[in-house]
Amino acid sequence: MRIAIILGTRPEIIKMAPVIRELEKRQGNYFVLHTGQHYSYNLDKVFFERLKLPQAKYNLEVGSGSHAEQTGKIIIGVEKVLQEETPDIILVEGDTNSVLASALAAVKLHIKVGHVEAGLRSYDKQMPEEINRILTDHCADYLFAPTEKARTILLGEGIPEDKIFVTGNTIVDAIYQNLEIARQGENILDALSLKPQEYFVVTLHRQENVDNRTRFASILEGLDKVAADFHLPVVYPVHPRSRKRMSEFNLEPRNFTLIDPVDFLSFLQLGSNARLILTDSGGVQEEACILSVPCVTLRDNTERPETIEIGSNILAGASPDRILECSRVMLGRENDWESPFGDGKAGGRIVDILEGKR
Length: 358
Ligand code: UD1
Ligand code: UDP
What we know:
Layout: E1 3-7, H1 10-25, E2 30-34, H2 45-50, E3 58-59, H3 67-85, E4 89-93, H4 97-108, E5 112-116, H5 128-139, E6 142-145, H6 148-156, E7 164-166, H7 170-184, H8 188-191, E8 200-203, H9 207-210, H10 213-230, E9 234-237, H11 240-248, E10 257-259, H12 264-272, E11 276-279, H13 282-290, E12 295-297, H14 305-310, E13 313-315, H15 320-331, H16 346-354
The protein binds uridine-diphosphate-N-acetylglucosamine and uridine-5'-diphosphate.
């Protein structure tokens, strides 16, 4: 079976890495197609380098643009490559424009689609990611659900049972494969003069949070309150979308340490030693849970409800007082939950299923 791995953004590279490693180990017949949705060094190449991933065979270099422009360019570019390479299946991961566009290109060519991290729902169609997830799942022939809950959601939407496979989330594999390496390497905590358990980590980049000045300012005010209340430093690796908006909106958070986005190994060091993580990222909510670090989610909903149910995460929205209150709640909780995201063998399971071994 010839497999096209298609990816385009930071989280897709990180979460697809365990599948790529597994295919490399088994000398699988595959190639990697990068859409070029992310292209800045610290959102893209740094992950290939630090995670020692093979170079993509193709890069469409679509770059940034409106949703239609970006999605349209990816569909056109992916279609051309698929027509040349004629793979049996494409594999995509997550919920970005790269994922939906690739699934659309493949399904119309009658090439099978495998969706890693299928079945997540925030039930908020204002989020571009929610549209991407739903449509990709309904194009897919293989739906790799990370949890039983995701499987139940897919069954509820009428997806046949024999297309759904509960594999665990490949982020667990990525963490297990890299945490030890991260601990042995140069430590970003030293570079930032941070002490374990004595700082907070923030990530914030969602369109609905940072493209709206009032909402972005309100969240930053909440984070200020948290820093002041606990007298602890806040480190925020700033996504380029947020950096751009901060400058456009004239928002200058003075009480945080703003840094450029960091590589995955450095982020694991930062995240695993933090007292608390405050985030609107999907992947970071999972990582906090797996690393036993309490998490405050700066959103009104989450497509990772398992984290709320087991107590590793809480939804704070964008109100400053609620962000502070939720931080107090999470810091008062025991970090004794069990991660629902699997055993770190999802990559192997996915390749086994594609090879017909399961
Ligand atoms: C995308 C995904 C989002 C995911 C995030 C991961 C969609 C709809 N959104 O959001 O789900 O959580 O990736 O990080 O697919 N930019 C750069 N360099 C880059 C890429 C982007 O400077 O390499 C800047 C550009 O100004 C661009 C903006 O960031 O306009 C937004 O980029 P885009 O790819 O549209 O969406 P993300 O916010 O990265
Ligand atoms: N991450 C990283 N460096 C950073 C911030 C995040 O490597 O400076 C990683 C983080 O460990 C997680 C992933 O990026 O695995 C999450 O990606 P992002 O928040 O961009 O997207 P989302 O998961 O929200 O789609």
